[in-house]
Amino acid sequence: MTSLGTMTRFYRNQAVLNEFFAIGGLERGGGLMAPPAYLLDETLDFPYKSRSDGKEILFADHLTVVRFLGGINDERIANREERESADLVERDDNDCIHYRFDRLDWFSPFVDRYGPELTLVLDNIPWAFCAKANIDGYGQSAPPADYEQWAAFITALCEELVRRYGFETVNAWRFRLATEARLETDTAGFIRHYKATVGAVRGVLPGARFSYYNTAGVHAAASQHINPYEAIETVVAAGLPVDFAPVSYYSVPRYPQDLPAKDRAASGRHDGCKVSPWSVSPVLRAEREYPEHWRLIDEAAGRRLPREIQELGVLVSECGVRTSEPGARGAAWLLQLLLTMRAESDIQRAWHWHTVDMVQVPEKAAEQQSRLLRSNGWLYSILDHTIGGELVLLDVQSDQSDEPRFSRRAAAILGADNGRSYLLLSSFNIERDEPRSEQVAVRIPVSELADPVALRATWLTDETDVYRAVRNDLAERGQLEQAFLDKPNVLSTVCGINQPTDGMATPEGLAFVDRNFPAYAAIIQDSLRLKPFPGAVEQDGSDWILSMTMTTPSTVAVTWR
Q: Residue 30: is its pLDDT beyond 70?
């Protein structure tokens, strides 16, 4: 048993994206909303824990506000007038700069709800400041051409934020200067940008905290166009603050032959796996790469910085079909990743994307749409009830411990604030099309579990997963999108992430899911209710040995008082 400290709400963070909210839109399931009623049912053992009696971002206590300044490209907002309306500044035909702070109105509901718990991301540079635009997949990434104009704008923006929301609130905010090094410059250029921007913000907000960007591809960070280690060392030596160390962690599963050249050396052995373990495993990169990256960050900063995963998730399947893994596979992957990151790197915060899946039938307004709970939301529903206990990483014995495709993790949360203790176990297989069973066992001290007869549990597996049920129903009715027909173990959201056909359901299928939603809500509710512990318990000296059969992918939550 290895203590990881007190269990906190470290996972309750999410990003909101300017391009959807600034034009009055609602990204699929990602806006302020009242929690779905079926998640608040008093008969649930793991009901949703609301922040308030109003609207909120589900499972989020802190928000990053991405592309806050505008600079959006036409891939994100197709309509030019709407796209330009997202910018907080414009340049007229006479080359004069005009601030457009009325565009901040969309942001006010988030401040009303989250107050000081906001990180503003100043990542896209508005079109008015660039001499020659550099457009990537998210917007304008060329640095400002005139840093005096830029600093004046940042100063005026901070003053406007204080006027709107009050000094005490805004002075508590954090600022991130880019997203994944998306600034078209070199290390020296980024240092200049950091100094100018941080200096302007601090002139108005002396209590604000700052960071550079969430590093992606940490195994090759030093060879990227901006070297974060060199940049941090330089700005710290100049007396500027660097207050937290964010990263991105995405799984982009690949077959070994499809790995980009830059990743092949890092990927290591494939151990006979069809899919590259490095690209799929929730454990390998978290153990091998991220601790070393953060060690180098701390060395550059001259102190230990709080470590954060500000973007986190699965982007696609190995066969190219887009998925965030909303089913049982996603929960098993996520629990192992979070536990490994806490154990190996002591992360202080982890972000998530959407935790519910909006069905999106055209005849309903966004607020009336049915919402399926994704697998990350299922896991967070469990974790929300474990707060305040001691988080302990457990050794797991398995009869498949030599199988390279398997990984497993277990943790106990002892003495939570609600008077209960918990055991969480996850079994994951790199190969999604080869579900296998393993016999696992963990030890719990007798001093922590007085009466094993009182053990209760719930689990998320292919048999209890609502997304598996939805996929099966759609396939049976001929309403499954073409891309999923020959991929029975690839699950995705019902409505597409980027394009409608990215989702599992055809338009007719969406209507069916909406009509049949009470049955799907009941499946989700059942996965949030406790049942008798499905394994065996025997005493071995001062320990109880809890054993059970787990079939990949699966996550089990056990509890006792």
A: no
